[in-house]
Structure formats: structure tokens, C-alpha cells
Amino acid sequence: RKEVEQDPGPFNVPEGATVAFNCTYSNSASQSFFWYRQDCRKEPKLLMSVYSSGNEDGRFTAQLNRASQYISLLIRDSKLSDSATYLCAVSYSGGYNKLIFGAGTRLAVHP
Amino acid sequence: ETGVTQTPRHLVMGMTNKKSLKCEQHLGHNAMYWYKQSAKKPLELMFVYNFKEQTENNSVPSRFSPECPNSSHLFLHLHTLQPEDSALYLCASSQETIGTDTQYFGPGTRLTVL
To answer: Which residue, A34, A60, A86, B5, is most buried by CB atoms nearer than 10 A?
Structure first.
């Protein structure tokens, strides 16, 4: 089983739609959780960290479910500019900051 | 921009060549990382440096040799690579190697091995 799994997509949605991605992780010792955005042929950029209580940043909402070992990302009112690959990443406590990434979910927002 | 630069941005090399990738961060961070991203695969952590000391070698073949002369610079020396080593090589940095520290990525070097 992969340590971090994501549905590769693509998710094709019209502008204005609401879309949600899930990401499951296998190691219950995972401590920190992140969503990154990666545009085609560019580097990943941090979209948001995911906190236990859930957090929101504008149109983006991230949630963590430790019992079921998954994190989610909800995008409301999708824009064309949201088209990208969304990577989830988890890190473990102790030692050092070893981020384990999922393979990413591709989102395509169309007019 | 994120404050992490990488050179060169593109590199084509033969299997017998020796080349080096360079990463520089201008964020005052103490930890630096090398990742490999192959097509349709997750980013794979290769090496971690914290305060210039290597703290992780993720079973990377010896044809990849990292060097960290100071907290701002990180190199990846390449020799006798294989075609399957063709990938995007990303450098990242974070304040330290604490799990909650955000990692900031450079633009990457797209490597093609012929």
C-alpha cells in the first residue's frame, strides 16, 4: 500500500463548481499535513497547511480526519486559474522533516 | 518567487558525463532537501541536510552525490547516470527539520539522460 494515496483524476469541472479531493495516508504517526499546488512544469507551491480543527482560506477549505486517516481539500466557486495538480503531503513526528507526497490529483476547470 | 533558485533549469547529459546541479536559498533557512519527480510518480525525497549535516539518504544510488558547503547552498553531483534517472530534480528548504516547518521549493532542474 502506498504511504500517501490520491485519486489521480483528472477532475474536469465547469467554472463556479465546487470540487473536493481526498488523500489517504497509511502511517498513523503522521504529524503534519499539507496541500501543495503544482502547475504544469513548475515547482510545487504550498497551498495550505491542514490543522486538526480544519481550516479555511478564501475559497479553499482543508480538513483532517485522523480516525480514518485522510485529509481533504474543498474548492468552492472554481476558477480557470485553479487548474493545476494538487499534491497532498504528510510528515512524521520526531527526527526530521521528511515529507511524503501523494502523486497528485489533476484539476481542469473549463469555461 | 519563493527565494529558492536552481541552476541549470534544463540539462541534457550522456551516461558518461559528470555534471552538478546547484541550489541556493535566500530565506535564511537551515534545512535543505533534494527531491526527484519522475513522470506520473510522487515526489521522492533523496537527501536532507540540516545545518550542513546530512540527516537522510533515502537509499539513493551512489551515482548521485550531494554536497552542502553551507546552509544556503546545496549541490547534487551526477556521474554515470542512467536514462531512468531522467526527471525533474527539485530543491527545497525549510527553517529547520521540524515536521511542521513549511518546505519551499525551487523551480527545479529538468534532467534528460541520453
So the answer is: A86
